């Protein structure tokens, strides 16, 4: 079939994803499904867990199908063996897809590469999206843990290399992929960068006076996980308040009431989410600023968009983040971003133009916050530049076109 006639086909595309919640990986999968469906392709997401009460709104609009298999399988045993059960749940999903559905043109596998060999036994072409090597995310502390992870790590590398195409979310992840999966790099298996995206139209609103409950505020949006380092935002905010007070820039702080809002994904099923939220509240209490720090776990998409429209800027604290979708959302909402000078934000945020790239220490973040607080016109101009950058490089339309091109290329 010629490449021109192939592109006229409407493809049958399946997506195999472990848990369709509200994280960054899920955001990418939903955007992929939306864009491919918009282009006329038949898209079907298969997953081991989907909760209509805790999901992205697009999953409820009916533009693509969602089928759940294996949610009855445990996620762990006494908070142990998470990786093993994640693999088992995904393998169950893959077996059901193969046995109960006719073959697809393309299967997009997300996060868990162990299912790739199963799909390679069918006529489908397989794309694997590697957000980050899982073996680097696991904690290898004790000898027992290292022995437990060894076969899983071997399986990850072996099965990742079996995909027809490997995609990663940033140049940072691509370089990490090469240094981690040395056997694949030696074979010339190079991942292609496909940046995550945002729906520009979703943030097509006029920025308003930055305030929450009547007061100006900085905003942090992240899942409540320790690796997101949200405590850095609290410590930086505390330093900023001390600086304003000592330099008499705040006037009467009891009337100004500058705030820090900490919002993001929160899952009651996850023990770490519960513990980390308590730790963050304790940190705010310890610094004596608990009345200035507002926690909004599991806020809705509508509420998140309101916060982005009203905040002074986004404080994004993870170091060595694989990519980071939240900075793109803030930039699309015409807000500058203060982020760590490492990982994916180095590719999305332009220092001194769309925000600030800082060392992951409170002093550095606090200084950047002070600049934006002291000159709202600078913040406004950075926000305008930020939206233009997202529109040009990270819009969902650009993402969808690139993904469709990749699909047709591997079919051809």
UniProtKB/TrEMBL annotation:
UniProt-listed Enzyme Commission number(s): 2.4.1.132, 2.4.1.257
Domain Glycosyltransferase subfamily 4-like N-terminal: 22-200
Alphabetical keyword list: Endoplasmic reticulum, Glycosyltransferase, Membrane, Transferase, Transmembrane, Transmembrane helix
GO cellular component terms attached to this protein's record: endoplasmic reticulum membrane
Recorded superkingdom: Eukaryota
Residue span, Glycosyl transferase family domain: 205-389
Membrane topology: Single-pass membrane protein
Annotated transmembrane regions: 84-104
Membrane recorded as keyword: yes
Stored Gene3D superfamilies: Glycogen Phosphorylase B (3.40.50.2000)
Subcellular location(s) of the protein: Endoplasmic reticulum membrane
One Pfam family it belongs to: Glyco_transf_4
Catalytic activity: an alpha-D-Man-(1->3)-beta-D-Man-(1->4)-beta-D-GlcNAc-(1->4)-alpha-D-GlcNAc-diphospho-di-trans,poly-cis-dolichol + GDP-alpha-D-mannose = an alpha-D-Man-(1->3)-[alpha-D-Man-(1->6)]-beta-D-Man-(1->4)-beta-D-GlcNAc-(1->4)-alpha-D-GlcNAc-diphospho-di-trans,poly-cis-dolichol + GDP + H(+); a beta-D-Man-(1->4)-beta-D-GlcNAc-(1->4)-alpha-D-GlcNAc-diphospho-di-trans,poly-cis-dolichol + GDP-alpha-D-mannose = an alpha-D-Man-(1->3)-beta-D-Man-(1->4)-beta-D-GlcNAc-(1->4)-alpha-D-GlcNAc-diphospho-di-trans,poly-cis-dolichol + GDP + H(+)
Gene Ontology molecular functions: GDP-Man:Man(1)GlcNAc(2)-PP-Dol alpha-1,3-mannosyltransferase activity; GDP-Man:Man(2)GlcNAc(2)-PP-Dol alpha-1,6-mannosyltransferase activity
Known pathway: Protein modification; protein glycosylation
Keyword rRNA-binding assigned: no
Similarity comment: Belongs to the glycosyltransferase group 1 family.
Chain's role: Mannosylates Man(2)GlcNAc(2)-dolichol diphosphate and Man(1)GlcNAc(2)-dolichol diphosphate to form Man(3)GlcNAc(2)-dolichol diphosphate.
Protein name as it appears in the record: Alpha-1,3/1,6-mannosyltransferase ALG2
Organism name: Ceratopteris richardii
Source taxonomy: Eukaryota, Viridiplantae, Streptophyta, Embryophyta, Tracheophyta
